[in-house]
Design a protein that fits this description.
Layout lengths: L2 E3 L8 H7 L3 E16 L4 E18 L4 H11 L12 E9 L5 E9 L1 H10 L12
Antiparallel strand pairs: 1-3, 2-3, 4-5
GO molecular function, one term: acyltransferase activity
Pfam family, one: GGACT
Protein name: Gamma-glutamylcyclotransferase family protein
């Protein structure tokens, strides 16, 4: 399953170079419907929000790279397992939209619930859901 990335893992950003360069089979523009983006600062958080969308890319791991890449991204995003209270992000399966409108399942790192509540209450929303346009 591909990854939907929307912040520092996007092409041209620091974590793309550190974690993804040379380890992908495909990278294509996409959108994540039903989510909005908040400034970290320094990196963004996606939070579920009906009617909004987040701009990013679908990243498909190169053959043989998937398992190691998944583990490294989980560490980067401070994801320790489903529903664990120390998660900064939760890795969830979501549908991403390609430019032609087709949907594809993808892993997405969303702000964990306690953080998502704080962001909705007092976070700085990124208009248009595009980290690169902030």
């Amino acid at each position: 399953m591909p990854f939907f990335v929307y912040g520092t893992l996007r092409p041209g950003e620091a974590n793309h170079a550190a974690f993804l360069r040379g380890r992908t089979a495909a990278e294509e523009p996409a959108r994540l419907p039903g989510a909005e983006l908040y400034d970290g600062p320094g990196y963004p958080y996606a939070v579920r929000h009906p009617g909004a969308h987040v701009v990013g890319e679908l990243i498909t791991a190169a053959p043989g790279a998937y398992g190691a890449l998944l583990a490294e991204l989980d560490r980067l995003e401070e994801y320790h397992g489903p529903g664990l209270p120390r998660n900064l992000y939760d890795r969830v399966r979501c549908d991403a939209l390609r430019p032609d409108g087709s949907r594809t399942a993808a892993w997405v790192y969303l702000a964990a619930p306690p953080l998502a509540r704080r962001l909705r209450e007092s976070g700085i929303r990124i208009p248009g859901g595009d980290w690169l346009s902030r």
